[in-house]
Amino acid sequence: MVNYLIDKDKKDNPAAPDAQTSPQPAQGVAVPDAVSAQDFNQAALGAYGPQTAAASALTAKAWEEAGQNAAHGHPWMEDRGKRLAIRTFSRGLLGAAFFTAGGMLTSKWMHGGTQGGHGYFLKRSLGEQLPFAVAKDGYRGNPLKTIAKIIDSVVGKPIKLAFGEKAVLFRDTQYKRVGNNWGRTLGDEAVNITFDFFCASVGDAFGRDIIGFFDPSVKKEWRDEKGHVKLPETIKGIGKKLWEYVSLRGGEDWAVAIPYAYYMKGQRSLIDKVSPGFKYDFDRQLNGGSFKVNKEGRVIGNYNLEGMADLQGRFTAYNIGTLMYREWYDHMAHILAGKPDHLYGAADPDPKRGVLGSVADIGKWVARSVVKGVITMTPAVPFFWITRSTQGKHRGLFINRDLGVMTHAKKNGRDAVYANDIIHGHMRRDEEVAFSRYDPAFMVRNNNGNPFERTRLPRRLSTITVDGKPAMLNSSNPATHLDPTKLEEAVQAGPKFHPYHTGTTLLGQGSDWLGEAQHQAAKRLTPLSKKLDQNLGQFGVGIKNFLGFKDDKDSPFGKESFKRFTHPFARASMSYTPYMMAKGEASLKWDTGKMDMASERMIDGATSLNLGEFTAGAGEVWRTVWGRKLADPAREAEGERRNTLDRAKPDIFEETESQMEEDKRKSELSWQERTFSGRPAKARGGDGASLENPYNIARRGAYSDTATRPSISHAEQEEMKKLLREAEPPTSSVH
Q1: Strands (DSSP E) along 137-196, which ranges?
Q2: Which helix (H) or strand (E) holds 298?
Q3: Which terminal residue of the chain has fewer beta carbons within 10 Å of its beta carbon, N or C?
Q4: Is the pLDDT of residue 529 over 60?
Q5: In the 8-state DSSP scheme, what is residue 17?
Q6: Nearest residue to 662 via CA among 347, 218, 336
Q7: How far is CA 461 from CA 469, 471, 598, in A?
Q8: Contacts for 60 with CB less than 8 Å, ≥ 6 apart
Q9: Across residues 47-73, what is the average pLDDT?
């Protein structure tokens, strides 16, 4: 090391070479504040390392951390292959398990489940909805009922007063009457569409933290230098992580719950107008798995395409909302920490922003979020809907666009005919079915509280056909499958319907194949569920009681089979894992500071009615999408600078602690570190932007009155002089 290595620094680096043999700065050369890397010997003054960094430019802690990072390599999340493996564990296993459990808890707490409980009831007081509250009639409160009641009271009531009761009711073809209309309330809807996503986000984050525990490149704040656990830091770290799970990871799901509910309500109505009957499928969360039938009961298609379009639209809208929440969350954290930050534009200090400018920027920020969200989600969501929209055919409905949904008689009136009812033999072949059309006006006309109007005389279930042939024959026997001459034999064998053999087009047959493959894959977990039923004993019973498993009379191991968990878990894992991988990689590629800068130019051009700027910004967005450099070198340099200032990293693969420390070190180098790492200091303009940047040089004139170099204190000046004197090599000259 050079001769200005002091004893303390030698202790940090005992392997430092002898000072007399190390490269040194030329005698009498003053080291300027802004210096290029070429002005110094890179071997001695380049990246941090035992022989390549000036020890005086590092604290002992920084030197130690640099050595650790060099020894352990990059965090696993930096490698694409490892990222995908981590995502398989965090989302495909833990996330899917948490998602499934969350859905079961929602069914139990909001709808009563099979435990004899009471579902959410709007007219109950808030006190009766609270956790552990028990009314005289046995009505029990819980956390989800509490949230639903608060939403209905605080948000739903004003909307109802302004727009009427129907404005706060959802999925009216499925859920029973509230007041004078059918449907579930805004609070009920928000909780039902959010809690399972919330649980999945928490499980995903927890899984990544588990992997981070074993990743040697992730800094462990709860360990001392000897590897011993520091109890106070451990407790603090656990509390910090729990708060992060609730406020950030899962908080983004709750933050968008209400607008997401209304987006789905509007999109459902739009798709149903284009393809009548879709509302029946949507209200039962079948994602397009239902069947289109004609008036004679012939299966003529399905709602796969409608389900795909629905999922593409609402997942894009949902993730635009979560993107905005994460950026707002990060923005508020920096504001509370006293750091300059803006939702729109670079994070540089900007004294020129006023109240009106800030309000206008909020609108532009929303527009920028829409641009980034659409770009990111367009290629990512298909990885979800290609699997999810084909999974529900075994539970599909039979829908006619004019006559409504096919129904059959039950103890409590009439209910829709599901494919499962036929597959499992829950209905006889000679059982009567009819079409029922949902029409709220019918409820008023007949004064019976039922908005379903029977539009077809009763008919035998055996009349359902595919391509003009009975579809109810025994699909397990090739000799009788779709063979009208074997009708009696099929009746004796039991009614069967094969939902994955109904496609009549190439797309339909492809979706049939993919759906059946997933259905069979989910059934492969049945042996595991049987082992859990047999071996977990009372512990397993406790899990089932907690989650509120529904009855499964087909299970040979009792009515509470774990199959109720393993099958939806498998379907969730097969859908969400590839989607989250694609979403994460797309976020890393396009949720960047450079994309922000390009889209801001386009948005600014649109709001100022400057067609040239709008077109130029759109071109920059397009080049950024394809990973090409911008045509203007100055703009390209500014885009790279914006990448370094981009604090709101994608949630999917947020940086590890060691990465964040490294980024912070690079962006906040002291004058000492800049000198010995060959990094130039950057003068700041009035908006805090670097004037050395080519793009900012071009616009420097706008800040000529305030463009000054950062002030240096007297103490810093004296310290610089002292270091430069010590940096001079020994000489025999007499001074």
Answers
A1: 169-170, 177-178, 181-182, 184-185
A2: strand 298-302
A3: C
A4: yes
A5: P
A6: 218
A7: 13, 10, 59
A8: 8, 11, 12
A9: 38
What is the rounded CA–CA span in Å between residue 632 and residue 616?
10
Confidence class of residue 715 from pLDDT cuts 50, 70 and 90? Answer: low
Amino acid found at 192: N
Assigned token pair, 515: 């759906």
Res. 176: pLDDT tops 60: yes
Distance separating alpha carbons of residues 106 and 260, to the nearest angstrom: 18
Q: What is the pLDDT of residues 314-368, one digit of tens each?
A: 999 999 999 999 999 988 888 888 887 888 888 777 666 666 767 888 999 999 9
Between 66-75, 319-328, 491-500, 670-679, the lowest mean confidence (pLDDT) is in 670-679
| pLDDT tier, 550 (very low <50, low <70, confident <90, very high otherwise) | low
Q: Over the Cα atoms of the chain, what is R_g?
A: 32
What are the backbone dihedrals phi and psi of residue 461, each rounded to the nearest 5 degrees, phi first?
-60, -25
Quickly list H helices, 651-693. Answer: 657-667, 671-677
Per this entry, what is the length of the chain?
735
Residue 625, C-beta contacts closer than 8 angstroms, at least 6 positions apart: 375, 590
C-alpha to C-alpha distance for 65 and 59, rounded to whole angstroms: 10
Residue 80 makes CB contacts below 8 A (sequence gap 6+) with 585
Cross-strand pairs, 405: 399, 436
Q: Quote the DSSP letter at residue 310.
A: H
Most confidently predicted of 65-69, 407-411, 486-490: 407-411
CB 517 within 8 A of CB 395: no
Question: Distance (Å, rounded) from C-alpha 614 to C-alpha 347?
Answer: 23
How big is the CA angle at 101 (ends 96 and 106), to the nearest 5 degrees?
125
- Sign of the Cα torsion 721, 726, 729, 735 reads positive
Would you state the structure tokens that stand for residue 517, as one six-digit string? 């493959």
Q: What's the rounded Cα separation, in Å, for the pair 246 and 202? A: 8
- Answer for the pair 683, 691: CB distance below 8 angstroms, yes or no: yes
Q: pLDDT tens, 411-456?
A: 666 788 888 887 776 776 667 788 889 888 777 666 666 788 887 7
**Cα 512 from Cα 501, distance rounded (Å):** 6
| Distance between CA atoms of residues 206 and 211, nearest Å | 9
In the structure encoding, which two tokens stand for residue 109, read together? 């707490």
- Non-local (6+) Cβ contacts of 382 within 8 A are 308, 312
Tokens of 32: 């300027």
Bridge partner list, 453: 437
Helix ranges (H only) for 215-288 are 231-244, 251-255, 257-274, 278-283
**Model confidence at 149: pLDDT above 80:** yes
For position 354, what pLDDT does the model report? 67
Q: Are 401 and 277 a contacting pair, CB within 8 Å?
A: yes
Q: Is pLDDT at 518 greater than 70 in this prediction?
A: yes
**Amino acid type, 526:** T
Helix 563-590 / helix 382-391 crossing angle, nearest 10 deg: 160
Who's near 539: CB < 8 A, 6+ residues apart?
none
Instruction: Report pLDDT for 73.
Output: 61
CA–CA gap between residue 134 and residue 313 (Å, rounded): 41
Q: 580, 349 in Cβ contact below 8 A?
A: no
In this structure, are residues 446 and 440 in contact, taking their beta carbons and an 8 Å threshold? no
Reference 107, options 471, 549, 429; nearest CA is 549
CB atoms within 10 A of CB 42: 13
User: Which residues does residue 184 pair with via DSSP β-bridges, in sequence order?
Assistant: 170
**Contact 429/461 with Cβ under 8 angstroms?**
yes
What is the phi/psi pair of residue 636, to 5°?
A: -60, -45
How many Cβ atoms are within 10 Å of 232's Cβ, its own excluded? 8
